[in-house]
Specification:
By secondary structure, the protein is α/β, with parallel strands linked by helices. The protein has two domains: 348 residues, Queuine tRNA-ribosyltransferase-like (TIM Barrel), CATH 3.20.20.105; 115 residues, Rossmann fold. Helices cover 41% and strands 18% of the residues. The chain contains 20 helices and 19 strands. The strands form five sheets. The protein has an eight-stranded parallel sheet. The protein has a four-stranded mixed sheet with strand order 17-16-15-19. The radius of gyration is 27 Å and the shape is elongated. Bound molecules: zinc ion. Belongs to the archaeosine tRNA-ribosyltransferase family. This is tRNA-guanine(15) transglycosylase. Its EC number is 2.4.2.48. InterPro entries: ArchSynthase1/Queuine_TRR (IPR050076), TGT-like_sf (IPR036511), TgtA (IPR004804), tRNA_ribo_trans-like (IPR002616).
Length: 501
């Protein structure tokens, strides 16, 4: 049924899913390039030649120019497997203050030209500082949402799937309020977080993480969440990890008009480039110098095309990371691309319990996890393990803790550990104290992820400190050991308290 969303793979709070539309299933995470048929920086064919199957265009502009006579697919000569999303004119409101069109007109128009995914006329909050003003945009959007829901029920065309935008700007409580209301209307099978563009232009990525959380945590998991205007490659995987399913943007063209060349982690001015660090069809064919010498239209066209390839590449890389269950490691890697991205990563870790909640327990075949610094202790597999250890049922009032700095898995086959197990047989709980994990019961040490990991030769000091704190906290607060004996801890970087009865 149109609007059905089926989740196939999950990692952190991100997922690969399939959204059913009248023109086939949209695989998410997806990027919708903004196209403007009235302005040919890059032709629709150029765009579709990248392999993309979904585009977004502005219903307000098309209607104003009366550009589409039949359906959007027929007029733009689109194949039957191309999914067309519409934007309503909300962005024009943000730019020009007002548009001369009603909510009902824009909904009927999108339905008439048979958009696959339609949006009613919301009022974007943007980055307004005044909370009353922000609330006003939220309330008008809500009111229009109700109006839209009534209209949608009456429409003959049931092939369009409708989106309810969530507003609130940087005011997280307003986003929550807006999200709950949007989620309650069953006419909308997709929701969208509005107006992050201005916030992203200011590199305020950590705020973006909070905004996504405020929206995502207040809507049902079964509904896809779109991010309006999220066309910067470096932030895409972070947004996906927080639960964003699709993006749209004109950034690839806007950057190109400004002579800006996107890579997956950086933005360059074309004149600063000696080489193209890319193998897309544009960069394979031309040198930066050749591109610079072209007339402006052709330069913009080719730069746009390259920029689009980069965004699509980032989407694919993110999907692959989800598929392989290594999205967290991918975020860690991306974090170092820019201090603002690093801030987004740090801020995302604040939501480790939320990420853990949605991160699947079983991720296909078991792969080892890569551990780096103290942030690795906040990845879902480790967070989940720490929670488990806090509840771990002790079977004795005595614990033996072997400092495991110098040990490698499989722990159970280590001769020293074997001897300790024999020595204490049933009279004590025997643990290995290990960086990142904390306490590992020897009897469980073979289970995932306790011996399936790779770590650096020199584990950073912070990890030892955090691990020691964790272990001491568990011993002193959660468990009731009368006696704690330490083994091999003299030269350990872990500082664990012993308890003698
Ligand atoms: Zn390229």
């Amino acid at each position: 049924m149109i609007g059905d969303f089926e989740v196939k793979d999950e990692d952190l709070a991100g997922r690969i899913g399939y959204l059913t539309t009248a023109h086939g299933k949209l695989e998410t995470p997806a990027f919708f390039p903004v196209i403007n048929p009235l302005r040919n920086d890059l032709s629709i064919n150029d765009i579709l030649n990248t392999g993309i199957k979904n585009i977004i265009t502005n219903a307000f502009i098309l209607k104003k120019r009366d550009y589409i006579k039949d359906t959007i697919h027929k007029d733009l000569r689109l194949d039957n497997d191309i999914i067309v999303m519409m934007d309503s004119g909300g962005y024009q409101i943000l730019q020009y203050g007002n548009v001369n069109i009603t909510n009902s007109e824009i909904i009927k128009y999108q339905s008439k030209i048979k958009a696959d995914i339609g949006v009613f006329l919301d009022v974007p909050t943007g980055d307004v500082e005044n909370k009353h003003e922000a609330l006003r945009t939220v309330e008008i959007t809500m009111k229009r949402g109700e109006e839209a829901a009534n209209l949608i029920r009456e429409l003959d065309n049931k092939d369009t799937l409708w989106v309810h935008p969530i507003q609130g700007g940087k005011f997280l409580d307003l986003i929550e309020y807006s999200a709950k209301k949007a989620n309650s209307l069953e006419e909308f099978s997709m929701l969208a977080l509005g107006s992050p563009t201005v916030i992203m232009e200011k590199y305020n990525y950590d705020l973006l993480i909070d905004m996504i959380f405020a929206a995502r945590a207040n809507i049902s998991r079964g509904k896809p969440l779109h991010l309006f205007g999220g066309g910067v490659p470096h932030i895409i995987p972070f947004a996906v990890a927080m639960g964003i399913d699709s993006f749209d943007s004109a950034s690839y063209i806007l950057y190109a008009r400004d002579g800006r060349y996107l890579t997956r982690n950086r933005t360059y001015k074309i004149e600063d480039l000696e080489y193209f660090p890319c193998s897309c069809p544009v960069c394979t064919k031309y040198t930066p110098k050749e591109l610079m010498e072209m007339d402006e239209d052709e330069q913009t066209r080719l730069l746009s095309l390259h920029n689009l390839y980069k965004i699509l590449e980032e989407i694919k890389e993110t999907k692959l990371a989800i598929k392989e269950g290594r999205l967290f490691e991918y975020l860690q890697e991306k974090a170092f691309s820019h201090p603002a991205v690093y801030s987004a990563f740090q801020n995302l870790l604040k939501y480790s319990l939320y990420l853990e909640k949605y991160d699947p327990r079983v991720k296909g075949e078991v792969k080892g996890i890569f551990l780096f610094d103290q942030y690795s202790m906040i990845r879902p597999e480790i967070v989940r393990y720490h929670q488990y250890m806090r509840k771990y049922k002790q079977s004795s009032d005595m614990a033996v803790i072997i400092c495991g700095d110098f040990l490698e898995p499989p722990f159970i086959s280590n001769e020293f550990i074997k001897d300790i197990l024999v020595k204490y047989s049933n009279s004590a709980d025997v643990f290995i104290a290990f960086p990142y994990y904390g306490l590992i019961p020897v009897t469980l040490s073979e289970s995932f992820p306790l011996s399936q990991f790779e770590k650096p030769t020199n584990v950073p000091n912070y990890v030892y400190i955090e691990t020691s704190n964790l272990i001491n906290d568990i011993i002193s607060k959660t468990k009731k050991y009368r006696k704690v004996i330490l083994e091999m801890c003299e030269n350990s970087k872990l500082h664990i308290m012993s308890i003698s009865s």
